[in-house]
């Protein structure tokens, strides 16, 4: 996943203010949670988007 | 005489500059292929070229299996679309919509008339 895609998925800027990513991740995750009409594919997609935005993973070698 | 020397210098200089630039470009390409940037760009280009998402990806996004009926898909789509409209992200909402469009065409091919329900 590219950083641009991750930012779009979470609905934040590509260089968001600190705390914005976690807040956005929480909001989007609540909307797509597997327990409430969502599914695991979208949940893991959102988690990966968060990791990309927080710089926890490298952009290459992604399954998406 | 001076003009001749000056012209010679300019021609030689520009030749060296062009050769250097070509080498730099080649090196940049090599670096890009090593880090996988070029491959990702290529993949993106291919994906953008084909435009449509695969049926498998569409099913994963909506969380349905091969055996799911169209009603089930429509229900899941409505839920996901609504939830992402109220407090999700626009990008995921459009992904959900594309997934439904993709599956719609698949189901239309199999049973004409059914997806219009």
DSSP helix fraction of chain B: over 70%
Largest interface: A-B, 24 and 21 residues
Oligomer: heterodimer
Query: Can you tell me the CATH architecture of chain A?
Result: Orthogonal Bundle
Low-pLDDT windows of residues of chain B: none
Uncertain regions spanning at least 5 consecutive residues of chain A: none
Q: If helices are DSSP runs of H or I spanning 4 or more residues, what is the number of helices of chain A?
A: 3
Distance between the first and last residues' Cα of chain A: 6 Å
Strand count of chain A: 0
Order of helices and strands of chain A: HHH
> How many helical elements of chain B?
5
> What would CATH call the homologous superfamily of chain A?
DnaJ domain
Characterise this structure.
Chain A has helices at residues 3-10, 20-31, 40-53. The longest helix of chain A is centred in the C-terminal third of the chain and has 14 residues, at 40-53. The model of chain A has no long low-confidence stretch (mean pLDDT 83). Chain A has one domain (3-53): DnaJ domain (Helix Hairpins, Orthogonal Bundle), CATH 1.10.287. Chain A is mostly helical. Chain B has 117 residues and is mainly alpha-helical. Chain B has 2 domains: 2-50; 55-116, no CATH class. Chain B has helices at residues 2-35, 37-50, 55-62, 70-87, 90-110. In chain B, helix 3 (55-62) crosses helix 5 and helix 4 (70-87) packs antiparallel against helix 5. Chain B is rod-shaped and about 90 Å long. Chain B starts with a helix and ends in a 7-residue tail after the last helix. At the A-B interface, helix 1, helix 2 and helix 3 of A face helix 2, helix 3, helix 4 and helix 5 of B.
């Amino acid at each position: 996943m590219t950083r641009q895609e991750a930012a779009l998925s979470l609905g934040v800027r590509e260089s968001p203010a600190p705390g914005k990513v976690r807040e956005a991740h929480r909001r989007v995750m609540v909307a797509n949670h597997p327990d409430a009409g969502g599914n695991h594919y979208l949940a893991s997609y959102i988690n990966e988007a968060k990791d990309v935005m927080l710089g926890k993973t490298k952009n290459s070698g992604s399954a998406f | 005489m001076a003009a001749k020397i000056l012209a010679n210098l300019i021609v030689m200089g520009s030749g060296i500059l062009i050769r250097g630039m070509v080498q730099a470009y080649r090196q940049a390409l090599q670096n890009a292929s090593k880090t996988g940037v070029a491959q990702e760009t290529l993949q993106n280009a291919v994906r953008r070229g084909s435009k449509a998402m695969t049926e498998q990806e569409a099913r994963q996004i909506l969380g349905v299996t091969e055996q799911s009926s169209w009603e089930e898909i429509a229900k899941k789509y409505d839920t996901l679309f609504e939830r992402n409209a109220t407090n999700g992200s626009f990008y995921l909402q459009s992904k959900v919509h594309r997934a439904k469009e993709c599956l719609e065409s698949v189901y239309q091919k199999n049973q004409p008339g059914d997806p219009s329900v």
